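Task: sequence design from structure.
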């Protein structure tokens, strides 16, 4: 997990920003899915 992403997730959790947590979560799973597809090929 990239450092910038960890920092944003930490800030979202500390501020209890549910919208930002959901958006970052979706981004993370999209990123993982995209990268795992390129690795398998």
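Answer:
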């Amino acid at each position: 997990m990239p450092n910038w992403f960890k920092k944003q997730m930490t800030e979202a959790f500390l501020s209890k920003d549910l919208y930002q947590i959901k958006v970052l979560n979706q981004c993370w799973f999209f990123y993982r899915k995209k990268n795992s597809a390129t690795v398998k090929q």
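The two ends are 21 Å apart (CA to CA).
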